[in-house]
Amino acid sequence: MTATTIDGKAFAAGLRARVAEGAAKVLAEGGRKPGLAVVLVGDDPASSVYVRSKGKATVAAGMESFEHRLPETTSGAELVALVDRLNADPAVDGILVQLPLPSHIDERAVITRIDPDKDVDGFHPVNAGRLATGLEGFVPCTPLGCLMLLRDVLGDLSGKDAVVIGRSNIVGKPMAQLLIRESCTVTVAHSRTHDLPGVVRRADIVVAAVGRAKMVQPDWIKPGATLIDVGINRTKAGLVGDIDPACASVAGAMTPVPGGVGPMTIACLLRNTLVSACRRLGVAYDRAL
Ligand code: GUN
Questions:
Q1: Beta bridge partners of 67
Q2: Active site (catalytic) residues
């Protein structure tokens, strides 16, 4: 048996097209385009590439992109002052401060300064709390993209055993919350978990977000399980995920790396920005987004 490949690239293209339709509706009914502000401090090459591709995708979806590139020497106070201006700017529906920030800036102080109703990254503790308690808010883009793929492949997730490997605030914890909301039975595994292979073997759904190349092995996989690989590890052999591609011989479906979860993240960022604009302007939006 060979697992079905979950085509995140194709799903993301469809999502971006639906977002572009929504953005056109916002312009027609709300009088302006949705706006996303992206802030980059310093010139880390990888972050610079991400910020450029976010800007391009934003414009391609018919939205306004506000790019703020600040020097490495920017102080925490200066960055917070920019966040305050963006919070107050009516043309800005979403604010994303690219992480990691230079070490002299207190990341937490910056993230908590963003208006939770413009926090399209879903990193503000208010949005983490909303997700945990079933209130409307913003869900971090990567786990939201993983959930969309899972629902597309499996339909109803209720009652399924899900194992999330990794407990970060950005992926593992919100992923677990989303799966609980879908009525899965959720286990969050991490570096201290005893018998990780045994834990993963029980799972109908595996989401791997640990950052260790090909860690998840074929003999850990329950036959037919659905595997979502969030890992992007740069190795001499190129980009590899956290899941060994050989798991395809046991799994029912799995995401490739690249072309799986990665393209979903930016598409979900655009989706969150559109939803923010609709809420702020009182324009109805398609819940199926
Ligand atoms: N750095 C890497 N990925 C992300 C992301 O999704 N959001 C932000 N703010 N920074 C990142």
A1: 38
A2: 54, 98, 121
Tell me whether residue 279 is in a domain: no
Q: Find the largest Cα–Cα distance for the chain.
A: 57
CA of 218 to the centre of ligand 1 (A): 30
Give dist(CA 264, CA 96) in Å, integer.
16
What is the Cβ-side half-sphere exposure of residue 110, based on CA atoms within 13 angstroms? 28
Residues 237-244 have a mean pLDDT of: 96
| Helical packing angle, 8-30 and 141-154, nearest 10° | 110
Atom of ligand 1 nearest to the CA of 100: 1
**Running DSSP on this structure, what letter comes out for residue 69?**
E
Per-residue pLDDT reduced to its tens digit, 24-72: 999 999 999 999 999 999 999 999 999 999 999 999 999 999 999 999 9
Report whether residue 40 contacts ligand 1, using a CB cutoff of 6 Å.
Answer: no
- Indicate whether 146 and 249 sit together in one domain: yes
Query: Could you tell me the pTM of the whole model?
Result: 0.97
In this structure, the answer to whether residues 246 and 153 fall within a common structural domain is: yes
